[in-house]
Write a structure and sequence with these properties.
The chain has one domain. Helix content is about 75%, strand content about 0%. The protein is built from 5 helices and no strands. The protein has about 160 residues and is an all-alpha fold. Helix 1 packs antiparallel against helix 2.
């Protein structure tokens, strides 16, 4: 798929929203519900105009992603006695599903996880920060960057090979 001018404008809008989310989460370790709702609404709006037949399916995918992640987050919290994945992250991933679809979620999570791991390793190596089980990491910036990257990959020739969403 070739990127059109409207795709470019949509990408700029998505990037702006993701930048605000990354900025706030990096500073306050929270992704506001209003911003998650904005990403979800914008994604639904884009789908409604570009591929209206997919809208219902993408909403179901988003609900499924949030449900599974909510269950995992709850199980982790009950088992470990601490939060491992915040509810803002869970809601964000549901909203991001509207943009990248269920097929894009493994890539999004992989990119975000590798990015987060890289930051932790760099902090440890260069800042001498100790990394422990309780070390907190704002995951929103990594999720935001991974969302944009995954969304952009749909315009890559590699997607024609069936390797990426």
């Amino acid at each position: 798929m070739i990127m059109t001018m409207s795709d470019l404008l949509i990408g700029v809008l998505l990037a702006a929203q993701l930048f605000v989310i990354a900025w706030i989460d990096a500073r306050k370790m929270i992704i506001p519900d209003a911003l998650n709702l904005l990403v979800a609404a914008t994604g639904a709006f884009v789908i409604a105009f570009q591929q209206p037949s997919l809208l219902g399916w993408r909403v179901l995918e988003a609900i499924a992603v949030m449900s599974v992640l909510w269950g995992i987050a709850r199980l982790y919290a009950q088992t470990r006695g601490q939060t491992g994945l915040g509810m803002g992250d869970v809601k964000f991933l549901g909203a991001a599903t509207l943009w990248v679809g269920l097929a894009g979620m493994p890539w999004l999570v992989l990119f975000a996880s590798l990015s987060g791991l890289g930051v932790v390793l760099l902090q440890h190596a260069f800042a001498g920060s100790a990394v422990a089980r309780t070390t907190r990491l704002p995951f929103g910036p990594h999720l935001a960057a991974a969302t944009l990257l995954t969304w952009l990959f749909q315009f890559s020739p590699v997607t024609e090979l069936g390797v990426l969403p």
